[in-house]
Amino acid sequence: MIAFDVRTAFLILGLLYVLLPTITWVVLAGRRTLQVGLWCGGGLLLGCAAILVGLRDSIPEWITIVLASTMIRVSLLIRIQSLRLELDKPWPWRWLALAEIATLLIFLSLQYGLHNFVLRAQFNSAVMTGLLLHLALLAWRIGRDEQSSSAKWIARIYGLVVVALLFRLYSLFGETGNTNFLQEGLSAQLLTLSLVLSAIVGHFGYVGLALDRALRRELLAVAERARDEESRRLGSQIAQLDRQRSLGELSASLGHELNQPLTAILTNAQVAKRGLQAGRFDAGQLGEFLDKIIHNTQRASQIIERIRGFIRPSVTRQEQVNLQLVVAEVAELVAAEAHKRQVTLSLPAQPEPVLVMGDLIQLSQIILNVVRNALEALTAMPRREICITCHGEDGRARLRICDSGPGLTPEALTQAGKPFFTTKPNGLGMGVSISKAIAAQHGGTLTLANAREGGGAIAELNLPTLQREEPL
Amino acid sequence: MNQTPPILTPTAASAAAKPPGVVAIVDDDPQIAGALGMWLELQGLGATCHLSAESLLDLLRLQDGQLTIQFGGAHPEVVLGAVLDLNLPGKSGVELARMLRALTPDLPITLITALGVEQRGGYGKLPSGVQCLKKPFDLDALELALFPLAAPYSVLP
User: Is this model's pTM higher than 0.80 or not?
Assistant: First the structure.
């Protein structure tokens, strides 16, 4: 072992421990966390302490012995806390402070009470050994848990310091032990060398570790965003499937509805053809037949457009929507089904449009789901009525769908809206749940309740209204 | 259209200019009821169009075993047949067909519906001799179903 001046080495060590944490702090700009701050702050404190130790004999003894050793212990505690925070297992700060005060009191009583400098040096070395060992083990645990070779290198280098400290402790027990660290021979040189290495490896390793962790955090954030995106996409696909299922179940009555204008077209065309062949119709009469054919063709095409509009794979739109028009559209869509079930659908006219911001199709999906449920609830009822009212007040649009059915059971009242809860034998239990989700996306709510008297269910869709710009 | 001389030769009512009677049409879609009315008038028959079973039943009378219909103070017209929609508000087409059949066992009746065969279950059994045509239907098919043996008018050449 080449002998070198421990005092000079300690001053260099101090400078390294001041410089490297500062560089680490600068390098990790933008990725700084509390842990990074503690690690760098702890290093800086250790650097200052090392410089004080190196200045022994030039400055008062209590500074180099009492203050410097306290600073070293505190710096090690801070670094331990930094790694414990990384592991999500921080020690309470109060305990740390109490432990340090207790150690300091023992230290002071050994130094100034018993004047036993050997015991004081042994005690101090033992405490430092314990702290450094703990630091090395924490770093190793992080290295193992996160597969980080940087953390493992930090663990190895602190392990080396622990070995050097043990050697120093061993020499303090021997005859040759000298409590003045700077005049100590081989053990002090080994310790100083290991500390210098720890300054270099500890900080470069820490930069690597912090960058690893920052990268992992960013990857996790990206994965999280991707999951959000995926669930939104899935959500809109489920909503679309629900619309298709709704239409599938309405298809029989929609087919019926579509056949009506087709029948009128075919009959008119055949009558016109027969009359034309027989020379019975003049141009004016033929024109009337053609007008009827045109009118019924438009009727058929409107029905098809309504269906097509309802199942388009929709990218959620944000547009100004008049809820009353949405209600009218849905009423048209279910008119045939209501007719088949002999249900009276009443929409009391409202003079004022009720404007909300949102997606026309998704909003009509909510209304369709509720109205279809009401239609089914009315199956066995003597009086079959559904009443849809819609008005705006105090910045909220309130759309109520009341039916004359038996109302919801207490179980249905609490469970409705939970995915897969259904009261229908072949229901999926998705309709109300999807409708509630759509309402929430529009900043509103969908609530189900029973009318106080006479049974029927009341569904209320509550949405924020769009403030209408007054024409100048 | 009663004023225009019929180009068809009515078989049942000899060569009289006046139609031999009317065919009752009940369909809650006025477009369809209207188109069927035009067809009957073209064929030289009168038509009486109704949007519900009840509105037809109100005007029907049974005279000497013949079903007649009377509008206001006019002469009662003989009902020659009935084309009924299956799905009506109030009484269904099947119920109406059963009532008519009970009144006059040989009245030609045809049901029409836009419903598929699998959706007609709830309406009960059709009276004997009554067919149900799926909308949209061909007029030839409707003629054949309503008057399979002897049409009260001659078909177009």
Answer: no
User: Residue-wise pLDDT tens for chain A (472 aa)?
Assistant: 456 777 888 888 899 989 999 988 888 888 888 888 999 999 999 999 988 888 877 888 888 888 888 999 999 999 999 999 988 888 999 999 999 999 999 988 888 888 877 788 888 888 989 999 999 999 999 888 888 888 889 899 999 999 988 888 887 776 555 566 656 677 778 888 888 888 888 888 888 888 888 888 888 888 888 888 887 777 777 777 787 777 777 777 777 788 889 999 999 999 999 998 888 888 898 999 999 999 999 989 988 887 777 776 656 778 899 999 899 988 988 888 888 888 999 988 877 888 999 888 888 889 998 998 899 888 888 889 999 999 888 889 999 999 998 888 888 888 777 766 777 766 667 778 888 888 888 889 999 988 877 678 999 999 998 865 544 4
* Minimum distance, in Å, between the CA of residue B62 and any CA atom of chain A: 30
In A173-310, the DSSP E strands lie at: none
Selecting from A266, A277, A292 the residue whose C-beta is nearest the C-beta of B136 gives A266
* A267 and A185 within one domain: no
Judge: A339–B89 Cβ closer than 8 Å, yes or no.
yes
Residues A265 and A213 in one domain: no
Tell me, what's the ipTM? 0.81
Domain boundary (A313, A329, A355) is at A313
Residue of chain B minimizing CA distance to A279:
B7
Asked which of A313, A332, A363 is the last residue of a domain, the reply is A313
Task: Give the total number of structural domains in chain A.
Answer: 3
Q: Is B15 on the interface with A (CB under 8 A)?
A: no
DSSP assignments along A58-125, one per residue: TB-HHIIIIIHHHHHHHHHHHHHHHHHHHTT-PPPHHHHHHHHHHHHHHHHIIIIIS--HHHHHHHHH
Boundaries of domain holding A101: 6-226
Q: Which among B7, B31, B112 has CB closest to A292?
A: B31
Domain check: are A184 and A79 in the same one? Answer: yes
What amino acid occupies position A448? L
Q: Is the separation of the CB atoms in A57 and A35 below 8 Å?
A: no
CATH classification at residue A116: 1.20.1070
- In terms of domains, do A305 and A342 share one? no
Distance CA A300, CA A294 (A): 10
